[in-house]
Amino acid sequence: MSLVQAPTSEFVGRQAELDRLDGLLSAGARLITLVGPGGIGKTRLAAEAVRRAHRARNRLVYWASLADMEGDCRATAQDVVQSAVCTFGAGTDYSSDRAVLVLDNCEHLLGAVGPLIADLLAAAPGLTILATSREPIGWVDEHILTVPPLSREQSLELFRQRAELVGRAIATDAQQLAVAARICRRVDHNPLFIRLAAARLRHQPPAMLLRELSGGADDKRLRWTHGARLGTELRHRGVYDVLAWSFALCGVREQLLLERLSVFAAGHETDDGESPRRGIELDAVIAVCADELLPAAQIEHLLERLTERSLLSVHLTATTMSWYLVESVQVFARDRLQHRDRAAAELLAVRHRRYFRDRAAAAQTTWHLPTEQVWIESVGQELRAVVEASRPVPARVPSLWSELSQAERDVAVFAAAGWPNSAIATVRRSSIRTVDAQVATIRQKLMIASRNEIARYVPDELAERVRHESERRPRRTSRVARYR
Questions:
Q1: Where are the alpha helices (DSSP H) in 262-324?
Q2: Which residues contact residue 270 at a Cβ distance below 8 angstroms, ignoring those fewer than 6 apart?
Q3: CA-based, 20 to 30 A from 391: which of 53, 128, 162, 182?
Q4: Which residue positions in the chain have pLDDT lower than 70?
Q5: pTM for the model
């Protein structure tokens, strides 16, 4: 059964995006791509849009969910098309001038899905493809619709709805509503993160939850897990899982730059009349982040790639461009930076501090001018980030391996040896779904972005076993997941 066939939970806001989608579908747009970070609501928006299109114009709608297809597989047109389920209407004629094909979660399969889309659009002149992805497909006539965060009012409405679901209704007094609004702001008005935050209310009151969202070294959001075990994808179980999925799709230099950008103050965007941060200018990024590993000449291109991947936000004016990390991404990237090299992280913080200290000193003579107010506020935020970075980082558990259960340790050894999940399931006489869940839990507990990093956390006393399992690892056959 396709996701869109099942009853969906609350749908809040998005009227402007729905109107835009309706206009594009009515005008016969060939490829429409909903782009945005993980958890922002691309799938729900696509489901609501095609549901309305079918109801208004009786259009055939097919839905192919690609999230579970392995990122390193070479999907063929037949594989993906056969995964599509006819959601609304009847028939299997993709060439119909009423047909809409939804390709959900394309970002990890762009190399395979891109040519497929081009072939389908050429073969079926009446077909419209609606894709969801964390970055654009790259087709020549692609309509890109960026899905923004919810507004302040919409975020608060969603948070209150989800709080009621877990039996912790938010009171209507001004103080409680203000705390709830601040929680929504700290999770970037991201619908999935709001749901995860509301699930935490089962264990603590809103004021304590807000303290978990400090944005500093003691921030706890990366440890959150979804209260529900059913009806949600593994990569959406927690804030960490959402961000790690996107991070793992980045190149090595993209990952390194994202981590280094975490020394800058977090930013945000809003449509509520509150001005966003000015952002980080290119000169500042180069001065603080560039070195022999990240040459200055490549920084601008890497910033653009991170923006394309919906990990970095851009702030545009008529004449300027700057970038910023929303707070959840900043917390994730800073954690990754500390894991990579604590000494390098401290050196980066020194470069950041010196850069803005020198800029502040050089600008003293113009601070009284009204035109410098925005710049002063921006530098002030960076200096506050310096103060935050100077606070001691809480001591970590000596060995994150100790947090794993015995079953998880056993699975981790096989994963470190390069066994695919299907083979691990066979040797352990378990289901693939169970192993998938165990590997996801292992990644979360070890705070790593992909299963390839598990080997770094295996204790020395198990190194020989990992070597042995690697030698007897079954040969992996080419396989493409089927969706029915």
A1: 282-289, 296-308
A2: 149, 151, 152, 189, 276
A3: 182
A4: 1-10, 70-83, 86-97, 225-235, 269-278, 361-399, 449, 475-484
A5: 0.77
Q: What is the pLDDT of residue 130?
A: 96
Q: 400: which residues sit within 8 A by CB, 6+ positions away? A: 445, 446, 447, 457
Q: What is the pLDDT of residue 477?
A: 46
Element (H, E) at 133: strand 128-133
* DSSP letter string, 23-76: HHHHTT-SEEEEE--TTSSHHHHHHHHHHHHHHHH---EEEEE-TTS-TTS---
Beta bridge partners of 132: 34
Q: How many CA atoms lie within 13 A of 32 on its CB side?
A: 27
% helix, strand, coil for the chain, step of 5: 55, 10, 40
- What is the per-residue pLDDT for 116? 87
The two most distant CA atoms of the chain are separated, in Å, by: 72
C-alpha angle 473-477-479 in degrees, rounded to nearest 5: 130
Which residues touch 420 (CB under 8 Å, ≥6 apart)?
476
Cβ neighbors of 188 (< 8 A, separation 6 or more) are 149, 268, 326, 327, 328
Structure tokens belonging to residue 118: 């081009």
Backbone angles phi, psi at 113, to 5 degrees: -75, -35
Residue type for position 66: L
Which residue is listed with tokens 């072939």?
Answer: 119
Strand partners, 33: 131, 144
Query: What confidence score (pLDDT) does residue 341 get?
Result: 82
Rounded Cα distance, 447 and 440, in Å: 10
The token duo for 439 is 């590997």
Residues 6+ apart with CB under 8 A from 57: 26, 98
Query: Kind of pairing, strands 321-324 and 313-316?
Result: antiparallel
| Nearest in space to 281 (alpha carbons), one of 242, 238, 317, 324 | 324
Q: What would the pLDDT profile of 252-289 be if each residue is shown by its tens digit?
A: 999 999 999 999 988 876 545 454 456 899 999 999 99
Provide the pLDDT for residue 12: 86
